[in-house]
């Protein structure tokens, strides 16, 4: 899956008023299908380290657009399996080191295409092996390292928790077995990342950032501690900070005094949905903003109107519209960024 | 023919092309030639677990082409430590690389690993200066601020010019939320170790004064308002003490004179704690929903319902 930007730019078709904007579903489907034919571009190769992420983003967008079969299932399974490492983790592309983030994307893809049967043939007892790979990255302070390099990031912790949850290996999903991870230590770390403004940063003391809010709120949500930790007062405070991310253009930014960007419409809104404060957003204005970021001719969405489209902003734009209740879209799960009807099947 | 395949220094290596490809159309790949050639040599040396000076050159070349490839960084640091390479030299090279690739975060993790290994041998002041240079290009770079926080903690720089540094940054841009956050960290980052921050009355006074002066410069700036609210919450002091500050920029009686929606928001909280202040608070919420922050009208309506007041009155105008 290509992560190269373009070819098109997000814009409004000539003569169209914002209220006439429509989601060009078929164009977005065709755009995602076309991404894999762009291997002659340098950028395709420079983004190899993200490849499995690109596939997850493209596939999720297709599911939410109501076209889950638009990419060939066999091809997806072959590719994901070719990223499997001996450790039970997955790399971003064949031959890449296993990494907790790419293991997470791989598990999300396999869940969406019901591919664990095929993996089981290659790797018997595959779910437990992947779960053990993920669990082995937990550090004594509760955090998770991304790879053997030891870099720490709340994204890795969140990825570890949702991966284990999809596999059914969180402690509360297997009450009769010894826990694979120290869940209380993980959530204690997340809580230490909360700042004086009520939002969360990448590590204790680091500036609040919408992307990090999503990973921290998502981690607490999956761990089942979101309600008890924040309480109504904490939700009000965090929700106020999140709703302040909406600017008069309708779009959302990631931190105070920064530019609006379509990917933040996902991170901010999904967090607000998890704390039950999504209705504080001006939905009509945000919908119009996201729709102005699409390329109505060739499909795909950009970070903001006038910029080049890419698959990353396409999935977060579509997922954002799904949260906004845009007609015809499949409902998205705000914590997993996957179709709700699929995550509903896991025992949480 | 490529740069490496023609270089006698590399003639002993059989490059390993990517195994991405084959019959599967989703995975077939056609690398841009230079990059692919270089990568094929990296795959080969990694497969042989070769850790040598020429591998350092190879990874340097690859990082120049694509600094976002995490595996390359990982292998480079392995190599550096194995060879006991001069880490000061590595930092110098990193300086240039970081300035060229501002958005990359692998660079900062690599730098952290190197500086941590240097320990007391590290020129900490040089690090502070380099970080300041990075901020000349982008004063809100998240990775660089995170790195700066790590430096402060690792080398105990709490009282070594950091407060002055945030002042300098905020003098350049009083709306730089990253600098406000860093100030909070420098002032309060040692509470757990027993070093008081804003829970000390003198420090609290100083910090509130600092925020007040920043608000005077730009009243419609969210950061210092969040900062004073944060101080109040962390120190458990009375909200009412902030009333004169809020009233300097917002008034319910004279809505046309409101200079800051954040002041009006603060006033709502103060008024709703006062006996008989609820109606006034409700009026302030009407003003926010209709005039000063209409995009969040649903939020203001929620706040009003929390006070047991009715819905937003649209008749309220400034
Ligand atoms: Zn973005």
UniProtKB/TrEMBL annotation, chain A:
<comment type="similarity">
    <text>Belongs to the protein prenyltransferase subunit beta family.</text>
</comment>
<comment type="function">
    <text>Catalyzes the transfer of a geranylgeranyl moiety from geranylgeranyl diphosphate to both cysteines of proteins with the C-terminal sequence -XXCC, -XCXC and -CCXX.</text>
</comment>
<keyword id="KW-0637">Prenyltransferase</keyword>
<keyword id="KW-0479">Metal-binding</keyword>
<dbReference type="GO" id="GO:0072657">
    <property type="term" value="P:protein localization to membrane"/>
</dbReference>
<dbReference type="InterPro" id="IPR001330">
    <property type="entry name" value="Prenyltrans"/>
</dbReference>
<protein>
    <recommendedName>
        <fullName>Geranylgeranyl transferase type-2 subunit beta</fullName>
        <ecNumber>2.5.1.60</ecNumber>
    </recommendedName>
</protein>
<feature type="domain" description="Prenyltransferase alpha-alpha toroid">
    <location>
        <begin position="24"/>
        <end position="338"/>
    </location>
</feature>
<dbReference type="Pfam" id="PF00432">
    <property type="entry name" value="Prenyltrans"/>
</dbReference>
<dbReference type="GO" id="GO:0005968">
    <property type="term" value="C:Rab-protein geranylgeranyltransferase complex"/>
</dbReference>
<keyword id="KW-0677">Repeat</keyword>
<comment type="subunit">
    <text>Heterodimer of an alpha and a beta subunit.</text>
</comment>
<dbReference type="GO" id="GO:0046872">
    <property type="term" value="F:metal ion binding"/>
</dbReference>
<dbReference type="InterPro" id="IPR026873">
    <property type="entry name" value="Ptb1"/>
</dbReference>
<dbReference type="InterPro" id="IPR045089">
    <property type="entry name" value="PGGT1B-like"/>
</dbReference>
<dbReference type="InterPro" id="IPR008930">
    <property type="entry name" value="Terpenoid_cyclase/PrenylTrfase"/>
</dbReference>
<keyword id="KW-0808">Transferase</keyword>
<dbReference type="GO" id="GO:0004663">
    <property type="term" value="F:Rab geranylgeranyltransferase activity"/>
</dbReference>
<keyword id="KW-0862">Zinc</keyword>
UniProtKB/TrEMBL annotation, chain B:
<dbReference type="InterPro" id="IPR002088">
    <property type="entry name" value="Prenyl_trans_a"/>
</dbReference>
<keyword id="KW-0460">Magnesium</keyword>
<keyword id="KW-0637">Prenyltransferase</keyword>
<protein>
    <recommendedName>
        <fullName>Protein farnesyltransferase/geranylgeranyltransferase type-1 subunit alpha</fullName>
        <ecNumber>2.5.1.58</ecNumber>
        <ecNumber>2.5.1.59</ecNumber>
    </recommendedName>
</protein>
<keyword id="KW-0677">Repeat</keyword>
<keyword id="KW-0808">Transferase</keyword>
<feature type="compositionally biased region" description="Basic and acidic residues">
    <location>
        <begin position="1"/>
        <end position="12"/>
    </location>
</feature>
<dbReference type="Pfam" id="PF01239">
    <property type="entry name" value="PPTA"/>
</dbReference>
<dbReference type="GO" id="GO:0005965">
    <property type="term" value="C:protein farnesyltransferase complex"/>
</dbReference>
<dbReference type="GO" id="GO:0004662">
    <property type="term" value="F:CAAX-protein geranylgeranyltransferase activity"/>
</dbReference>
<dbReference type="GO" id="GO:0004660">
    <property type="term" value="F:protein farnesyltransferase activity"/>
</dbReference>
<dbReference type="GO" id="GO:0005953">
    <property type="term" value="C:CAAX-protein geranylgeranyltransferase complex"/>
</dbReference>
<comment type="similarity">
    <text>Belongs to the protein prenyltransferase subunit alpha family.</text>
</comment>
<feature type="region of interest" description="Disordered">
    <location>
        <begin position="1"/>
        <end position="24"/>
    </location>
</feature>
């Amino acid at each position: 899956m290509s992560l190269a930007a373009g070819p098109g730019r997000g814009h409004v078709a000539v003569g169209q008023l914002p209220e006439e904007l429509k989601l060009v579903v078929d164009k977005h489907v065709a755009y995602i299908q076309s991404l894999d034919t762009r291997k002659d571009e340098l950028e395709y190769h420079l983004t190899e380290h993200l490849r499995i992420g690109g596939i997850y983003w493209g596939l999720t967008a297709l599911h939410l657009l109501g076209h889950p079969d638009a990419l060939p299932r066999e091809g997806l399974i072959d590719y994901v399996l070719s990223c499997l490492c001996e450790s039970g983790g997955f790399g971003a592309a064949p031959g890449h080191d296993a990494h907790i983030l790419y293991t997470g994307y791989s598990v999300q893809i396999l869940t969406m295409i019901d591919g664990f049967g095929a993996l089981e043939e290659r790797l018997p007892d595959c779910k437990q092996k992947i779960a053990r790979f993920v669990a082995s990255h937990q550090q004594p302070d509760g955090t998770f390292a991304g790879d053997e390099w030891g870099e720490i990031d709340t994204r890795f912790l969140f990825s570890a928790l949702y991966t284990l949850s999809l596999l059914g290996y969180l402690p509360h999903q297997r009450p009769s077995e010894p826990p694979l991870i120290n869940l209380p230590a993980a959530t204690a770390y997340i809580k230490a990342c909360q700042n004086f403004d009520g939002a969360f940063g990448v590590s204790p003391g680091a500036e609040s950032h919408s992307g990090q809010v999503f990973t921290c709120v998502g981690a607490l949500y999956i761990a089942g501690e979101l309600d008890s930790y924040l309480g109504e007062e904490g939700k009000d405070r965090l929700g106020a900070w999140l709703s302040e991310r909406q600017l008069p253009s309708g779009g959302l930014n990631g931190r105070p005094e920064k530019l609006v960007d379509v990917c933040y419409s996902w991170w901010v809104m999904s967090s607000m949905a998890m704390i039950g404060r999504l209705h504080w957003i001006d939905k009509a204005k945000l919908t119009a903003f996201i729709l102005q970021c699409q390329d109505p001719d060739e499909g795909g969405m950009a970070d903001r109107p006038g910029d080049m489209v890419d698959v990353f902003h396409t999935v977060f734009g579509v997922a954002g519209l799904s949260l906004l209740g845009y007609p015809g879209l499949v409902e998205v799960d705000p914590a997993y960024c996957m179709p709700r009807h699929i995550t509903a099947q896991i025992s949480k | 023919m490529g740069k490496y395949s023609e270089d006698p220094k590399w003639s002993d290596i059989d490059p390993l092309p990517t195994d991405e490809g084959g019959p599967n159309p989703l995975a077939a790949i056609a690398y841009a030639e230079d990059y692919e050639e270089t990568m094929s040599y990296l795959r080969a040396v990694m497969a042989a677990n070769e850790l040598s000076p020429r591998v350092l050159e190879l990874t340097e070349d690859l990082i120049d082409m694509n600094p976002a490839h995490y595996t390359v960084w990982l292998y480079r640091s392995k190599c550096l430590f194995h060879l006991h390479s001069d880490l000061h030299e590595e930092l110098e090279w990193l300086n240039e690389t970081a300035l060229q690739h501002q958005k990359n975060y692998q660079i900062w993790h690599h730098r952290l690993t190197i500086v941590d290994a240097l320990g007391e041998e590290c020129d900490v002041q040089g690090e502070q200066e380099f970080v300041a240079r990075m901020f000349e290009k982008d004063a809100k770079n998240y990775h660089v601020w995170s790195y700066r926080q790590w430096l402060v903690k690792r080398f105990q720089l709490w009282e070594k010019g950091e407060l002055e540094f945030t002042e300098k940054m905020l003098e350049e841009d009083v709306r730089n939320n990253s600098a406000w956050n860093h100030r909070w960290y420098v002032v309060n980052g040692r509470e757990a170790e027993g070093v008081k921050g804003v829970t000390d009355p003198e420090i609290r006074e100083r910090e509130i004064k600092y925020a007040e002066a920043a608000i005077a410069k730009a009243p419609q700036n969210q950061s210092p308002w969040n900062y004073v609210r944060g101080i109040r919450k962390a120190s458990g002091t009375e909200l009412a003490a902030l009333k004169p500050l809020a009233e300097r920029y917002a008034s319910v009686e004279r809505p046309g004179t409101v200079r800051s929606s954040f002041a009006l928001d603060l006033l709502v909280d103060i008024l709703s704690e006062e006996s008989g202040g609820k109606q006034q608070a409700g009026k302030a919420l009407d003003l926010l929903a209709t005039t000063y922050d209409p995009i969040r009208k649903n939020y203001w309506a929620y706040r009003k319902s929390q006070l047991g007041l009715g819905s937003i009155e649209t008749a309220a105008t400034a």
